[in-house]
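Fold this: Fatty acid desaturase
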Amino acid sequence: MPVYQINKGINKPIEFKGLRAQYIAYLAVGLVLLLIGFAVLYICGASLWVILPVIISLGTALFFIVFHLSHKYGEHGLMKYFAKRQLPAALKFRSRRIFIHLSKK
């Protein structure tokens, strides 16, 4: 008789060190952009004493912002927030024609 293990993590969001779902991707993209920014500034000849504090402070800000958004909005809350902002405050119709031609089914 075979023994099957039950995976209790099915249908749960991915979580890593407190970050949930898409916030892991936001942090990864931000870190890659910081790495590219560091490389560009270094190749352009900027002093390392200028580059390092800038990159470290931007990286710290990135971590705090992403963790704050993850804890404030949760898994889908940020997408819901942006979707709600795109809703119009009111709809204006100049004629009743659209309502007259509605049919009951």
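The radius of gyration is 24 Å. The CA atoms of residues 29 and 88 lie 31 Å apart.
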